[in-house]
Amino acid sequence: MSYLECLRVFVRVVARGSISAGGRDLRLTPAAASNRIKDLEARFGVRLLNRTTRKLAPTEIGAVLYDNARKVIAALDETEATVASYAGTPQGVLRVVAPLGVGRRLIAPLVLRFCGEHPEIQIRLRLSDRVVNIVEEGVDVAFFLGQLEDSALSWRKIADCGRVLVASPAYVARHGTPSSPDDLADHNCLLLRFPRSPEYFWTLETPDGPRKMTVSGRFDVDDGDVLTQWALDGAGIANRPRYEVRAHLEAGRLLEVLPQTPPLGAQFGCLTPHREFQDPKVRLFIDFAVRSLKGAL
After folding, report:
1. 187-214, pLDDT tens digit by residue?
2. pLDDT value at residue 128
């Protein structure tokens, strides 16, 4: 197996934190990915990874190799992109991540349409509501839905996305309707939480400006669609993107709560690593996404 391929596997395994996840990103079985790592260790005559049943981490020399190999691979990928731009037909693999809800409803169908028009491009789509370090994990395009903080990444806005607090008619009948943000303290709030999540509070739009509200509840989960289902089942109040629950609101399955002080809206768009020369297939995909998704939210 080529030295470069082994390096790619090693970098992806370290970035993803496991051999199975790193191999999956590269369409390799865990056994095949593990063999690539062993080939590298045999080449250098040193252990590169410390493996336990619960954790994988680079050794000291493995961390040095990772830092340098990541830069080499990024430079090679950028060089290939530059050369491909002269060929006139973008081709190769695009690694795309998106939040679970928007990924299922909007991005997965978008990928099929895009690849139908551009058969030379392969897309490896990963859906997750966790915070993703797109540079460390080798992601080409990350769809983002939320409040964008200062970032060294390149940003392409697609649309603004309103949010709404919702509860089922059954929940409201049992527990009443909050009449002010302070009343949320007396209600079971359904929370989206995952490692490094900032959502331990809800920010509501009030006449005095955005107000952070500390909320709590008996249930939290790392999948937004589960929150919606819990709200439909009468378990509590959920904070959801309006487009995701629009049909439920129109059908009366969910009711809007505190419409006079809705949650702070979100931005929807694409994040990409900042590079001097953008891969043509990345630019092509993002342009396609912006055109296709402008009115979807």
Report:
1. 999 998 765 555 578 999 999 999 999 8
2. 85
Identify each DSSP E strand in the chain by its residue range: 49-51, 56-58, 92-98, 121-127, 141-146, 154-161, 163-167, 189-192, 201-206, 209-214, 220-221, 237-241, 255-257, 266-272
Q: Sign of the C-alpha dihedral, residues 143, 154, 72, 59?
A: negative
- Chain centroid to Cα 111, Å, comes to 15
pLDDT at 85 over 70: no
CB 30 within 8 A of CB 23: yes
Q: What spatial distance separates the first Cα and last Cα of the chain, rounded to whole Å?
A: 46
Beta 49-51 vs 92-98: how paired, if at all?
unpaired
Pick from 119, 157, 159: which is nearest to 272 by CA?
157
Q: DSSP per residue over 224-290, as a string?
A: HHHHHHHHHTTS-EEEEEHHHHHHHHHHTSSEEE-TTSPBPPEEEEEEE---SS--HHHHHHHHHHH
> For residue range 8-43, what is the model confidence (pLDDT) as tens digits?
899 988 988 888 888 888 878 889 999 999 999 999
Averaged confidence pLDDT in the chain = 88
Helix, strand or coil for residue 162? coil
Q: Is the whole-model pTM more than 0.85?
A: no
Which residue's structure tokens are 């997750």? Answer: 128
The size of the chain, in residues, is 297
Residue 198, C-beta contacts closer than 8 angstroms, at least 6 positions apart = none
E strands present in 59-173: 92-98, 121-127, 141-146, 154-161, 163-167
Contact present, 9 and 22 (Cβ < 8 Å): yes
CA dist., res. 30 & res. 28, Å (int): 6
